[in-house]
Amino acid sequence: MENVFPVNFIWGSSTAAYQVEGNNTNSDFWAEEHAEGSPYLDKSGDTIDQYRLYREDIALMASLGLKAYRFSLEWSRIEPESGQFSRSAIEHYRDVLNTCHEFGLTPIVALHHFSSPRWLMRLGGWANPNIPELFSAYCEVVIRELGNLIPYVLTFNEVNLPIMLRDVFSNIGVIPPVGIDTKSWSSPKWRESAAKLCGTTVDQYFTFHMISDEASIGILKEAHLKARKVIKGIQPNIKVGLSMALSDLQSIPGGEAVAEKKWKDNFGEYVDIVQGDDFFGLQNYTREVYGPNGLVKPTDGAELTQMKYEFYPEALGNVIRKVAKELHIPIIITEHGIATDDDSRRIEFIRRGLEGVQACVAEGIDIRGYMYWSSFDNFEWNSGYSMTFGIIEVDRATQERKVKESAKYLGRIAQNNSLTF
């Protein structure tokens, strides 16, 4: 079993622009942070200042032995107003990509990771039927300018997350953005303030995380297909995919149908647009157990992460097998991680998760890479800086990076392409 990882298996870690760059002031998330009554625990501010410190960060990740870096581009920086593209931002991301290549890290680039330009909200956000044209125009500029430096592209991160959120809140008829509690999202004052900061009204305010009705899901699907066509038309050799957040859905007696429906909603809804992709970005953090009355809470005494997820690294292998039964394209694990202040548990989580990946490879499943979430402790959306997913700690007062043992562990795995070294 020790040598079953493919020769060219890609080992790396992941971030998202909004969570690490800092001062993405033109984003809808910035408006949400600063809205009156905002439920965000912290303001992102400089975050870990990677917009300035990217070169040092990339060199650090490479020095650990990692082989890839999955990160996102910030649409609101590249296109600060509709149809107006920033040469400065494009050249910044060109430097980031060139630095990845310089230090031997394969860049895997997400073109959209949750955050959107404020101006998009003034056009009705992700409910606007013109979204496929608007998004693909942005993608076209990026790929024409930078496509020769990008071997792998994710059009969207976690296209299915809004549906998962819809299921959680459907009982009370509200659909909040990711991580936002019911009370905060249903507060007109907070929503109206966020919309106002985007220069619009609450009826036009429709963020990515609200894409859960039939019409907006259709718009999102069309946006992916149109973007893929544009990307391949310019750079046919770029591998194009998208990612989904997928828990390992299990059941106890009487809950089989509930779990099956959840899987169909969370995964099956999007299979039609993924079939033509070059790879699938699989993202997993835990399992969910369903009974006849819905989600069953973890048993008393079960180990929980800072996010209150059950510590269950075996979920990764289980989800890979489920996906592989329905989708016959290569898989890249684009996120897999744990929020914990006990780094020994992070090492255990990585090890046991990768044992599952190794078993799946041995079974013949085509898995091309593994990206841990996250490279750094960073801004975790409405949870602020309270969740520590990173393999590298950051002192935000000084922006000093402190390598954790888990980073060294993952680096050794990457260098040896094996769990034994």
Write the layout of secondary structure elements.
Elements: E1 10-14, H1 17-20, H2 28-34, H3 50-63, E2 68-72, H4 75-78, H5 87-102, E3 106-110, H6 118-122, H7 131-146, E4 152-154, H8 161-169, H9 182-185, H10 188-197, H11 214-234, E5 239-241, E6 243-245, E7 248-251, H12 256-266, H13 271-274, E8 280-284, E9 287-291, E10 294-296, H14 315-326, E11 331-336, H15 343-362, E12 367-373, E13 392-395, E14 400-403, H16 405-416
Parallel strand pairs: 1-2, 1-12, 2-3, 3-4, 4-5, 6-8, 7-9, 8-11, 11-12
Antiparallel strand pairs: 9-10, 13-14
Question: How would you portray this structure in words?
Answer:
It holds the Pfam family Glyco_hydro_1. It comes from Paenibacillus antarcticus. InterPro entries: GH, Glyco_hydro_1. One of its GO terms (biological process) is carbohydrate catabolic process. GO terms for molecular function: beta-glucosidase activity. There is one protein chain. The chain is of the alpha/beta class and 421 residues long. The protein has one domain (10-247, 265-289, 305-416): Glycosidases (TIM Barrel). The chain is built from 16 helices and 14 strands. It has helices at 17-20, 28-34, 50-63, 75-78, 87-102, 118-122, 131-146, 161-169, 182-185, 188-197, 214-234, 256-266, 271-274, 315-326, 343-362, 405-416; strands at residues 10-14, 68-72, 106-110, 152-154, 239-241, 243-245, 248-251, 280-284, 287-291, 294-296, 331-336, 367-373, 392-395, 400-403. The strands form 3 sheets. The chain has a 9-stranded parallel sheet with strand order 5-4-3-2-1-12-11-8-6. The chain has a 3-stranded mixed sheet with strand order 7-9-10. It is globular, with a radius of gyration of 20 Å.
